């Protein structure tokens, strides 16, 4: 699956909160939550969960691009370097949240480069772990289709079948 296909499929299960500002705030907060969950998965050395959290990060990044009416850039793999990826993601995520805050509160034009930086930092992580990025996107969509067979519902979001989702991610 490429990023264009992923973006199209990810928006099917994304809740719209009724305004661009609320949708962007939802995505920015979701990105931050996923970075925290990624750090926890890395600390536990749970490769299945690391891939899941990478997929979840892509969900929020892709849907942010969608809410901005911008096509998500194609993935390219980078040469891994020795650095603290999670710390880098925290910094980049904080920068993106500040951009969203200034857009919502002050009407400042949203800097889409801040969002692209998150995407590429996640791609560096994929390369570092030698994961198949396309497979991560496929599994993430498969998990979301299991959770939301038709489309997003609050009830299904709150009552997830985590055992089924884990089996999908492990397959």
Q: State Rg.
A: 15 Å
Task: Round the mean pLDDT to the nearest integer and report it.
Answer: 88
Helix count from the secondary structure assignment: 8
**Separation of termini?**
17 Å
Quaternary status: single chain
The shape, in one word, is: globular
Q: Structural class per helix/strand content?
A: mainly alpha
How much strand?
A: under 5%
Low-pLDDT regions: none
Secondary-structure element order, N to C: HHHHHHHH
Q: Based on DSSP secondary structure assignment, what is the total number of beta strands?
A: 0
Profile the largest sheet.
Answer: none
Helix content: over 70%
List the helices and strands and how they pair.
Layout lengths: L2 H8 L9 H25 L2 H21 L17 H22 L5 H17 L4 H15 L6 H5 L3 H9 L1
Helix pairs in contact: 1-3, 1-6, 2-3, 2-4, 3-5, 3-6, 4-5, 6-8
Description:
- This protein has 171 residues and is mostly helical.
- It is built from 8 helices and no strands.
- The chain has helices at residues 3-10, 20-44, 47-67, 85-106, 112-128, 133-147, 154-158, 162-170.
- The longest helix has 25 residues, at 20-44.
- It is globular and about 45 Å long.
């Amino acid at each position: 699956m490429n990023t264009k296909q992923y973006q199209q499929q990810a928006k099917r299960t994304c809740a719209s909160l009724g305004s661009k500002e609320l949708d962007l705030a939802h995505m920015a907060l979701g990105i931050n939550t996923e970075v925290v969950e990624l750090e926890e998965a890395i600390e536990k050395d749970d490769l299945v969960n690391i891939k899941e959290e990478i997929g979840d990060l892509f969900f929020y990044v892709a849907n942010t691009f969608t809410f901005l009416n911008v096509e998500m850039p194609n993935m390219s793999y980078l040469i891994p370097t020795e650095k603290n990826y999670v710390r880098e993601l925290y910094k980049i995520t904080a920068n993106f949240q500040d951009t969203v805050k200034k857009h919502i509160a002050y009407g400042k034009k949203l800097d889409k480069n801040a969002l692209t930086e998150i995407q590429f930092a996640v791609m560096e992580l994929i390369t570092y772990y030698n994961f198949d990025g396309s497979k991560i996107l496929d599994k993430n969509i498969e998990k979301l289709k299991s959770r939301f067979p038709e489309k997003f519902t609050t009830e299904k979001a709150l009552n997830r079948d985590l055992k089924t989702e884990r089996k999908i991610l492990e397959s």
